[in-house]
Each structure stands twice: as structure tokens, then as C-alpha cells.
Design brief:
Layout: E1 8-12, E2 15-20, H1 23-36, E3 44-48, E4 53-57, E5 64-71, E6 74-75, H2 79-86, H3 92-97, E7 101-105, E8 114-115, E9 127-128, H4 138-141, H5 151-162, E10 179-183, E11 191-192, H6 194-198, E12 208-214, E13 225-229, H7 230-234, E14 240-249, E15 260-261, E16 291-292, E17 297-299, E18 301-303, E19 322-323, E20 326-327, E21 334-343, E22 349-359, E23 366-369, E24 374-381, E25 388-389, E26 397-399, H8 410-425, E27 429-430, H9 438-451, E28 459-460, E29 462-463, E30 475-484, H10 489-492, H11 522-531, H12 534-543, E31 547-553, E32 561-563, E33 568-570, E34 579-585, H13 586-597
Parallel strand pairs: 1-4, 8-9, 11-27, 12-26, 13-24
Antiparallel strand pairs: 1-2, 3-4, 5-6, 5-7, 5-9, 10-14, 12-30, 13-26, 14-22, 15-18, 16-21, 17-20, 18-19, 21-22, 23-24, 23-30, 25-29, 28-30, 31-34, 32-33
Helix pairs in contact: 8-9
Length: 608
């Protein structure tokens, strides 16, 4: 292949620093220096023959991965070293310093021939993969049997692990994090991986082992919906606690004014009425273990007026104060868990109130297995109506079987099988990636199931809980580890008939926290256009939004106003009084005003 450059330039982090006679020999020397400790192990170097260039990388934030060094077709990691590692006589860094293991970045991998196992090593091999699972990150390595799933599903499973409720800290009841979700009865998965066991994450579990049946249930678990057993939910399945923090501070202002925590006086501006402050104690702060509903004040606070002109009241003696209390947001309720009083670095008083509320799984809550099989609860069924096996086992969750084949998440099926075998034998099952072939694993679990009197492939004869009749087909039942995700319907549910509007556009505010409108978007508009429901469209997008009656001059097309003293309509440009009321969107009137501000005069032409 023709070389692009005659000289072999050396680039350090992308900048040319010189050139060498022979790039390949130079790179070999640097690598030997790195392995003997003369050159830093953080340096990566690569020779690109097509460009005839050497790239040296030392910049921070590169992704690097450890490999065992292979020289002359022999791995430098000997059995003696492995034994010393197991006996903890030496550690990983010892191997790094001795040049047995080195880190490669994505560029240096271009010059490497990596063998997957010792038997694959040839004379051309430069490195050996010391653990096949090291191609995955931490979260992916907690997914069991990932090599049997399609790649996007593994990524989804890993991201669901991050969204799961569990035991994020063992001192959660002493912490004041802005929000926290604690699962009531977290469990360690029956099927786990080597990374799960060695990382110590088992002390912070984030899910529960569910008995899962793959079946439809009267059309309730169509697509990704799942059906839960009410008996299991009543016994604590998926139950969690939600903690939320409300805090406030006595701020100081220029001019010696400051906030004060106390029950606001009835004369204060913005006073919410006596009932809102009923739960506060004398110091203006709510007490622990009291129940609170939306709108209840948690921290009473009086603040000075926003503008200096307002500071003197009507009598000219007392200072005018305003209510600046902290209250429970709309749609929320709970019990006051703990109240803490502390000081800021500038010695002002801070109050933090932690509110807890119980979250029992209900319709609309989200559950997911570690294989990216997410589902929303569509029905919580009384236990007596759930399908049951000959032994009287009732599944906790019914998953639609159609959600497996098209997504290629066969790891989910393997986990159910391994989980069932593990539950019966009382042993943990290993689901680490690339350990054993699937047919060997299936026959191993099948043998265990047979010993306990079950079908070899995890299928069972089930009976309909409503009619009592046996199902015609055997149903696959196993144990899978499910996470309850923090996307709960109680946090997202909002209903509104009317609400506040923005001052600028007169349109409803945006967002649940501001009691905003429910957006009727472009696509929803298209539906009404398609149906020809023009009056409904007008109602949604004009009358229920920002309709404003505007006076328009018939003569010059300008927007006028009504003079209430002379009781006459006036056009400010031509002075005429021949104006007509036109209903238009306030946002359009605002647009016209903004166009006028850049010295363009838009006219509104009225037809007779």
C-alpha cells in the first residue's frame, strides 16, 4: 500500500512534535520501555503504516482496557502468577508494573492481534483477553446471560438497573437527599453474575425475585402490559417508600432586612388563610409524624417586601411583610418523616422537612426485568382469579409471551429456567456472560427440575383461576428478577379543568409543577382536521387557550382601545372612532405589537 507521507511524523495528542526514521521500530522501543517501567503506563502509542505516522496518546478521559501481554506466542501470565493472585500474595498493580498486563486504548488496538483464549494464541498474537466479560461495563455485567440477548436490549436492561428502586444507601433515614426511593423487601437475585458477587452490590439490592408465567390473561397484558397478583402485592411485593425534601432558609437582604420563620400574620401580603397554617407549631414549622396534603404549609415564613417603595405601610409606622411559606406541591401528600434545623455557612437558619409517602404497585406503574423487558401494570388481579399450578403455585406476574421472540431476549427465558432450578435446589445460579454453552446449561437446569418432579423445560400444567378449567397448553413458569422502576403513575398523574396563564402570552403555563395545561399538540390538531371537527379545534386552540377581543380600526387597520372616560373607541394612529371588535389569539396580538416595535406597521384588513 502506498504511503501518504515520506517522513514518519510523530503526533503527541494530535500535535506534530517531530519525525523519526522508522516508525515501526520506534513504536516497538517505546512499548518495551513501557513494559519495563521506563515509560509511563499511561502512554499509548500506535504506528499507522498507510499514513506512515506515529500517534502518541496521553490525554485524559480515554477509554482504556487491560490485556495480558503475549510475546513469541506465549502468554506472560503464568499459572504461578494466577496462583499468587488467588492467594493474594500479589495484586493487579504488581502485574501491571511487571509488564504482564497493559492497558490499550482504542487507537493502539489497531496494532494488536488479541486472542480470546490461550488455545487461540499463534505466533502473530500480541495480547490475550484475560476475561471475556471485560468488554462490558459494570451495569451490563450485572445482566445475566447477556450473550443470548440482542445488543440494544442489553443496553436497555443496564439503563433499567439505574432507574430501579432499591436500597441506595443503608443510612437513607439519616440523609436529606432531594428525593429517594426505598424498596421495602429488596432481594438478591437468584441468578447473578461474577461481577454482581465481587462488586459488593448485593448489599444494595434493587429488585425482587418474581414467579413469572408466560401467558396471556383475558387480553389485559397485551403488548408490554403485565398483570400482577394482588395477593403478592398485599404481602409486600414491589412496595416502596418515596422520600422528598422541602427546605427553606432565613435569608438576609441589603438594608438590614431578613426573613423570619413564624406563622404569618393575617395582615401579610399573600396570606393563604387560617386553615393552611393549622398544622404548624409555634415556631412556624410542621412537626414530625403529622400527615400533610397538597397546599398544606410545611414551613411558615415572613419575608420583607420585594421593592423598597412598599416597605412603609399605609400608617407609615409598621413595615409591610409578605408571606413566603413553603407548602406541599399540588398532587402530593404524605407523612412528615423528619425535620432538621441547621445553619448555612453564612450563619442563617435552614429548615429541611422530609416527607415520606407509601407507594403500593398500582395500574400504570412500571416494572422491568434485567433483559430490557419493560412493562406497565395493566391489572392487579385477586389471587383467587390468577392461574395456578397443580401444586397451588400462583405466579406473581404474568408476561405476554409475544414480547420474547421479536426482541430476541432469550436470556430472559434462560434466567427464568435457571431461577426456577436455583429456587428448588436452594443454590444461586451463575449467569455470567460467556461461561458455558446454552444447550449444556439448559440440560443442567432441566436435570435439576426433573429431580424435583417438574417438566424438563420449565413448563407446567396450569388451571384458570376464574373457571377452574385446565389450560390446553402447558405454560412456561420460572423465577425472574424484576426491578420496580421509579416511573410511577402517582408521580405523573395530573388532571386539570382550569389553571393559571402566563402573563406575557395569556396561554396556559407549562408543566405539572406549575399546574399547566395539557398540551394539545400539532399531531392532535391533525386528528381533528382529519375528522373535520373544526369547532372543537377552535375551542381547544383558541377559546380554551388565549382568545382575546381586540378592537381593530376599519380605516387604517391598526389596533385601537376603548376610552372609558369618554365612552368611545379610539384609534391611536388616525384618531378615528370606527373600530370593530375582532376575536383573535392573544399571541397573535403580541406578535403584531412586537413587529411594531421594530418600526414595521402591520395592518389588519377587515372584510365587510
Amino acid at each position: 500500500m502506498a504511503q501518504i507521507n515520506k517522513k514518519c511524523y510523530v503526533y503527541l495528542n494530535g500535535r506534530i512534535i517531530g519525525y523519526v526514521a522508522d516508525g515501526e521500530t520506534f513504536v516497538k522501543e517505546i512499548r518495551n520501555g513501557r513494559r519495563t517501567g521506563i515509560v509511563s503506563g499511561e502512554v499509548n502509542i500506535v504506528y499507522l503504516p498507510r499514513l506512515n505516522a506515529v500517534h502518541v496518546n496521553t490525554d485524559a478521559g480515554r477509554v482504556r482496557k487491560p490485556y495480558v501481554v503475549v510475546e513469541n506466542g506465549v502468554s506472560k501470565l503464568t499459572s504461578d502468577m494466577v496462583e499468587k493472585l488467588n492467594n493474594k500474595e500479589v495484586d493487579f498493580n504488581y502485574l501491571l508494573r511487571r509488564g504482564v498486563i497493559e492497558y490499550l486504548d482504542v487507537e493502539e488496538e489497531e496494532n494488536s492481534a488479541v486472542a480470546m483464549s490461550e488455545k487461540d494464541i499463534t505466533q502473530a498474537t500480541t495480547h490475550l483477553e484475560f476475561d471475556l466479560t471485560s468488554i462490558f461495563g459494570f451495569t451490563v455485567n450485572t445482566v445475566p446471560f447477556p450473550e443470548y440477548n440482542s445488543a440494544p436490549r442489553i443496553g436497555m436492561g443496564a439503563s433499567f438497573s439505574k432507574q430501579s428502586e432499591g436500597l441506595y444507601q443503608t443510612n437513607f433515614n439519616r440523609r436529606f437527599d432531594s428525593r429517594g426511593y426505598i424498596l421495602y423487601y429488596p432481594q438478591v437475585p437468584i441468578v447473578n453474575t461474577s461481577v454482581y458477587r465481587t462488586s459488593g452490590i448485593a448489599s444494595h439490592p434493587s429488585g425482587q425475585n418474581f414467579i413469572v408465567a408466560l401467558s396471556s390473561y383475558y387480553g389485559y397484558n397485551m403488548q408490554d402490559a403485565v398483570v400482577l397478583n394482588k395477593g403478592a402485592v398485599d404481602r409486600g411485593l414491589g412496595r416502596s417508600m418515596f422520600y422528598k425534601i422541602y427546605s427553606d432558609e432565613e435569608r438576609r437582604y441589603p438594608g438590614g432586612q431578613r426573613d423570619v420563620f413564624k406563622i404569618p400574620a393575617a395582615t401579610a401580603e399573600g396570606y393563604l388563610g387560617e386553615h393552611a397554617y393549622a398544622k404548624l407549631s409555634e415556631d412556624g414549622i410542621i412537626e414530625p409524624e403529622m400527615s400533610a396534603d397538597e397546599g398544606d404549609v410545611l414551613i411558615g415564613k415572613m419575608a420583607p417586601p420585594r421593592f423598597l417603595e412598599e416597605s412603609i405601610g399605609a400608617g407609615g409606622l409598621e413595615e409591610k411583610r409578605r408571606d413566603d411559606s413553603t407548602y406541599l406541591k399540588p398532587g402530593e401528600s404524605g407523612i412528615i418523616d423528619e425535620v432538621v434545623l441547621t445553619e448555612s455557612p453564612s450563619a442563617t437558619k435552614i429548615v429541611k422537612v422530609r416527607v415520606r409517602s407509601l407507594r403500593v404497585p398500582e395500574n400504570g406503574d412500571k416494572f422491568a426485568s434485567r433483559h430490557g423487558q419493560k412493562g406497565v401494570v395493566a391489572l392487579v388481579v385477586p389471587q383467587e382469579d390468577m392461574p395456578f399450578s397443580e401444586n397451588g403455585i400462583v405466579p406473581d406476574l404474568i408476561l405476554n409471551p409475544h414480547s420474547i421472540p421479536s426482541r430476541l431476549t432469550f436470556g430472559h427465558l434462560l434466567e427464568e429456567l435457571a431461577g426456577k432450578a436455583g429456587a428448588l435446589s436452594g443454590k444461586m445460579a451463575d449467569g455470567t456472560a460467556f461461561t458455558g454453552k446454552s444447550d449444556e446449561r439448559i440440560s443442567e437446569y432441566g436435570k435439576l427440575l426433573k429431580e424435583h418432579g417438574f417438566g424438563e423445560f420449565g413448563t407446567e400444567q396450569m388451571y384458570d383461576g376464574i373457571t377452574g378449567e385446565p389450560f390446553h397448553a402447558n405454560i412456561f413458569v420460572g423465577v425472574a428478577y424484576y426491578n420496580r422502576l421509579y416511573h410511577m403513575v402517582s408521580n405523573k398523574l395530573q388532571v386539570r379543568a382550569r389553571g393559571p396563564v402566563q402573563i406575557l402570552t395569556h396561554q396556559p403555563t407549562e408543566g405539572k409543577s406549575r399546574q399547566g395545561g395539557l398540551r394539545f399538540g400539532e399531531m392532535e390538531r391533525d386528528v381533528l382536521v382529519g375528522y373535520g371537527a373544526s369547532l372543537l379545534l377552535k375551542e381547544r386552540l383558541l377559546e380554551q387557550s388565549d382568545m382575546a377581543p381586540v378592537l381593530v380600526c376599519n380605516k387604517c387597520g391598526n389596533i385601537g382601545y376603548h376610552d372609558y372616560i369618554k365612552r368611545v373607541d379610539v384609534c391611536p394612529i388616525c384618531g378615528g372612532s370606527d373600530l370593530q371588535e375582532v376575536k383573535m389569539s392573544y399571541a397573535f396580538k403580541l406578535l403584531i405589537d412586537e413587529i411594531k416595535s421594530i418600526h414595521i406597521f402591520p395592518r389588519i384588513r377587515l372584510k365587510s
